[in-house]
User: Which sequence fits this backbone?
């Protein structure tokens, strides 16, 4: 029986040990260090061979649990968080845990909140024989409890101490150990609270940082109004503000969309080489499809992948192999989806749900900036178009009035001359000298009047009735050559493949080509070799039409003067107005015309026309119709055939219309045919009662020709359509 | 009642009116002139009611309209009004507007032909064709 002194000494030692533990634990704020130290101190001070600390799971000391619910319906477990020696380390590595209220001493201690002692573990029914600790003979399990805010008590875990001796614990031990356990509990709780606070603080700091970064991105992008510049700098701004390794911006692209309901988001900017490569490839993702961008855009909500290996929607991009986490954010303005942004990190779990708010704020800023830049672009295009239209209209109004005036003043002159000539014929022939003189006077008046009218025609030109539109320049020049009655063997064409459309008023343009070709014809009249070579090819932002002749060329000193009105080397019958008129037309079409001499002899005129590079509107061509094209096999008939066939129509071509016309729903006839007379062909068509379904198309419209065709019986005469949309309009 | 062909000529340019009148008179037609669309319409209705109706009308386009104001479409409006009264009336437009769109509009409204002043040769021949056919 231990003596009283021994007992008193022992008690003192215990209290001292307890105090030491208490002292140590209150100064350690790092929860993991705390637990390790506690088990070591306990074993060292009390001489136990093993001590371990279990903490009940889900009470706030693990990293945030993203799986839902710390539901009270799940049975709680007490997880071993510190254990002495190799045995302890091994059990922690296994994730050793015991069920609260389960059949173990720890289970009982954590369930009931009271100490459990087994003085001879062989005897104790609740003793769980732990294979890691075979030498245990006595064990004590002490609950770790703290007071909570309501004044009650909360069990946060339990402490186990184990001895190799039986009956190693006395009542004194229990008291001292429980007191110490209480202090440990408090210390653990404090450490937890401290850690939580730090976490909350870190969170708050992070949120502030993210919002600051969002504001920075917003600020920097709001001032960039050029859309391309905005997109390219946006990804750099984002990555620098947030420290991401990649950011990419996708915009909804209507043009890339196919059948209704299938929309695409096209990558417009991406950070670094990977981004540049993907933009160059035309990388795009289907909205509503199986990619993060696609899904985020489709549902207009942010998506996070914390470990891209796991996420079903993650599209593994070969250009970005280092991505471990990704967030996709929709870009929405005023309820409209305009695109989506992807930000990617090389770290796993780089974002959490809190980050969504601040990153979405950034995305919203971006959406507004992009929308502003897009609107500005649209405004600039519309403004340029308006300016073009207004300029055209202003010219048209001025010319209309001039034409009107001249026409009205010229008519009485020619009519009067006509009458006077008749009257002269009725006068007695007694004064042949006077008569001859009067006839001559009348001739001069008639010629002058004709010249005045031709000024109206050439210098001022017929009123512009069409805005410049997309046109196939090779077709316009060919038609002009046929209209100028240039024999086929005298003219040759070299046309580059895949010519872009030009922007031109084709009625004016065909007049201009007419003047140049007429000039060429006259130049070769007396030449040994009579040839005109036409070359059409793109040059920079223009299409160039070169018309070269084998004539004598233009005298060097005249090269500048040929463009002046009324300059002519061709004798008194010529007004010398053609080239001047051609120059005027080209200027009005934002084009150019220059003349030069060819080294081998002859002159060459080069006409430059601006390429039409605005996007072409969609065409709603009808389908299932039987259509006849009466035209030669040329660029226009090939285009019309392809467009109409592509829309699902049955199309036949005939160079002279000598086919059975009855089966066709519609006949499109070129007003200029190379191997037939279009008037005669139309008469034939009308004879076969097909006039009402025949549309004449011409690159240039003139009142007399149009009236003639309509009076012969054509349904209508219209400008030749050079785009699918223009074709759709006339076929309606 | 003479069986001369009666032509109504409407134009606000005096010289044009006088010149065309002289030419048509020489060709053997009976000609009445008007300097505006409203006067032209009034003359037409009057002729109808006095049983000496016009056989052909030759109209300018740009002149004082039916409401009195100068209007580029005055002639087209007059054309429609005349055709409402007499659906078989041959109407020829003689105008300084060298525009295909206006020519088509005139045809849609029932004009037989569209001549541009300065290139009006053939007008008298056409009138003769209309009378003959």
Assistant:
């Amino acid at each position: 029986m231990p003596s009283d002194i021994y007992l008193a000494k022992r008690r003192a030692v215990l209290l001292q040990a307890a105090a030491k533990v208490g002292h140590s634990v209150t100064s350690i704020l790092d929860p993991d260090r705390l637990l390790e130290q506690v088990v070591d101190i306990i074993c060292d001070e009390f001489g136990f061979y093993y001590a371990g600390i279990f903490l009940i799971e889900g009470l706030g000391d693990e990293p945030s649990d993203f799986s839902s619910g710390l539901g009270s319906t799940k049975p709680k477990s007490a997880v071993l968080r510190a254990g002495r020696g190799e045995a302890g380390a091994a059990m922690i590595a296994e994730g050793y845990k015991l069920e609260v209220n389960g059949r173990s001493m720890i289970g009982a201690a954590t369930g009931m909140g009271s100490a459990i002692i087994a003085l001879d573990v062989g005897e104790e029914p609740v003793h769980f024989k732990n294979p890691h600790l075979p030498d245990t003979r006595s064990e004590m399990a002490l609950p770790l409890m703290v007071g909570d805010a309501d004044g009650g008590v909360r069990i946060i875990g339990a402490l186990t101490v184990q001895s190799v001796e039986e009956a190693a614990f006395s009542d004194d031990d229990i008291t001292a150990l429980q007191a110490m356990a209480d202090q440990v509990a408090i210390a653990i709780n404090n450490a937890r609270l401290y850690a939580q606070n730090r976490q909350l603080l870190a969170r708050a700091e992070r949120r502030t940082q993210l919002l600051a970064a969002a504001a920075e991105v917003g600020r920097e992008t709001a001032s960039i109004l050029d859309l391309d510049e905005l997109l390219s700098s946006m990804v750099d701004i984002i990555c620098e503000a947030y420290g991401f390794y990649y950011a990419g911006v996708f915009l909804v692209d209507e043009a890339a969309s196919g059948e209704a309901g299938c929309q695409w988001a096209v990558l417009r900017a991406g950070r670094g080489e990977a981004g540049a490569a993907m933009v160059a490839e035309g990388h795009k993702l289907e909205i509503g499809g199986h990619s993060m961008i696609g899904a985020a855009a489709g549902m207009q909500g942010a998506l996070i992948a914390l470990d891209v290996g796991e996420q079903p929607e993650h599209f593994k991009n070969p250009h970005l192999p280092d991505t471990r986490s990704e967030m996709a954010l929709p870009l929405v303005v005023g309820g409209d989806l305009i695109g989506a942004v992807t930000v990617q990190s090389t770290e796993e779990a780089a974002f959490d749900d809190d980050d969504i708010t601040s990153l979405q704020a950034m995305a919203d800023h971006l959406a507004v900036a992009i929308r502003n830049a897009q609107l500005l672009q649209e405004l600039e295009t519309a403004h340029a178009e308006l300016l073009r239209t207004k300029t055209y209209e202003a010219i048209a109004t001025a010319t209309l009035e001039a034409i009107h005036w001249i026409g009205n003043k010229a008519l009485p002159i020619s009519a009067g001359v006509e009458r006077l000539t008749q009257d002269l014929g009725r006068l007695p022939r007694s004064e042949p000298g006077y008569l001859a003189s009067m006839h001559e006077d009348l001739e001069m008046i008639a010629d002058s009047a004709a010249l005045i009218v031709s000024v109206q025609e050439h210098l001022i030109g017929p009123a512009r009735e069409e805005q410049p539109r997309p046109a196939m320049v090779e077709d316009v020049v060919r038609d002009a050559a046929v209209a100028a009655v240039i024999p086929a063997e005298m003219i040759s064409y070299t046309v580059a493949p895949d010519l872009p459309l030009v922007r031109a008023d084709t009625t004016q343009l065909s007049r201009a080509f007419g003047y140049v070709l007429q000039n060429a014809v006259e130049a070769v009249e007396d030449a040994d070799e009579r040839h005109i070579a036409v070359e059409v090819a793109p040059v920079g932002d223009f299409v160039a039409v070169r018309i070269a002749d084998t004539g004598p060329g233009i005298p060097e000193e005249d090269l500048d003067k040929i463009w002046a009105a009324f300059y002519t080397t061709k004798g008194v019958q010529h007004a010398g107005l053609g080239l001047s008129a051609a120059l005027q037309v080209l200027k009005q079409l934002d084009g150019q015309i220059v003349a030069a001499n060819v080294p081998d002899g002859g002159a060459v005129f080069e006409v430059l026309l601006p390429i039409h590079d605005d996007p072409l509107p969609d065409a709603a061509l009808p389908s299932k119709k039987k259509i006849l094209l009466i035209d030669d096999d040329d660029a226009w008939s090939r285009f019309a055939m392809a467009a109409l066939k592509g829309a699902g129509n049955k199309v036949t071509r005939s160079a002279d219309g000598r086919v059975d016309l009855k089966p066709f729903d519609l006949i499109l006839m070129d007003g200029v045919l190379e191997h037939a007379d279009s008037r005669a062909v139309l008469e034939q068509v009308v004879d076969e009662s097909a006039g009402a379904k025949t549309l004449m198309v011409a690159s240039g419209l003139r009142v007399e020709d149009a009236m003639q065709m309509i009076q012969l019986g054509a349904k209508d005469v219209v400008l030749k359509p050079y785009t699918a949309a223009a074709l759709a309009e006339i076929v309606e | 009642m003479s069986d001369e062909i009666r032509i109504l000529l409407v134009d606000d340019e005096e010289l044009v009116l006088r010149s065309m009148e002289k030419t048509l008179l020489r060709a053997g037609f009976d000609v009445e002139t008007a300097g505006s669309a409203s006067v032209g319409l009034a003359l037409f209705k009057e002729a109808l009611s006095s049983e000496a109706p016009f056989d052909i009308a030759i109209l300018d386009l740009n002149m004082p309209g039916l409401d009195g104001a100068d209007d580029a479409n005055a002639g087209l409006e007059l054309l429609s009004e005349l055709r409402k009264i007499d659906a078989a009336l041959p109407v020829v437009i003689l105008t300084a507007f060298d525009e295909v769109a206006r020519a088509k509009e005139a045809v849609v409204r029932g004009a037989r032909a569209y001549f541009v002043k300065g290139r009006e040769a053939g007008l008298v021949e056409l009138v003769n064709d209309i009378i003959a056919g």
